[in-house]
Amino acid sequence: NIDSGVRVSRVLRNGLFSRLDISEGFIILAINNKKIKSPEEVSYILERIRGRVIIEGITSSGERGYYSYIF
Fold first, then answer.
1. 29 near 58, Cβ under 8 Å?
2. Global pTM value
3. Percent of the chain with pLDDT over 90
4. What is the pLDDT of residue 66?
5. Per-residue DSSP letters for 45-58?
6. Measured between alpha carbons, how far is 8 from 28 in angstroms, rounded to an integer?
7. Which residue(s) pair with 27 in the sheet?
8. Over the stretch 52-71, which tens digit does the pLDDT of each residue have?
9. Radius of gyration of the chain (CA)
10. Distance between CA 57 and CA 71 in Å, rounded?
11. Which is it for the CA torsion 8, 69, 37, 63, positive or negative?
């Protein structure tokens, strides 16, 4: 069961998710171990964070996925 998270509904070409190879349907559960509850929260965090970022979630096929990058 998933009690939090945000489903990626659109990936912009040349956008961050595209560069990280995050596809539509991926559910973002946490960013740097902080549970995500809304799309606004994803935007807020990604606009302000610096350093290493780890995005944790579930792929559209139901597998755990981890994406890491450095701002």
1. yes
2. 0.91
3. 85
4. 96
5. HHHH--SEEEEEEE
6. 7
7. 7, 58
8. 999 999 999 999 999 999 98
9. 11
10. 20
11. positive
How many residues make up the chain in this entry? 71
Helix (H, G, I), strand (E, B) or coil at 28: strand
The per-residue pLDDT for 33 is 96
Name the E strands within the chain: 6-7, 27-31, 34-35, 52-58, 64-70
Per the listing, tokens 């965090």 go with: 45
State the average pLDDT over residues 23-51.
95
Taking alpha carbons only, the member of 20, 36, 27 closest to residue 59 is 27
pLDDT (average), residues 7-28: 94
Q: How many CA atoms lie within 13 A of 32 on its CB side?
A: 12
Determine how many CB atoms are found less than 10 A away from the CB of residue 41.
16
At 54, the amino acid letter reads I
At position 51, the amino acid (one-letter code) is: G
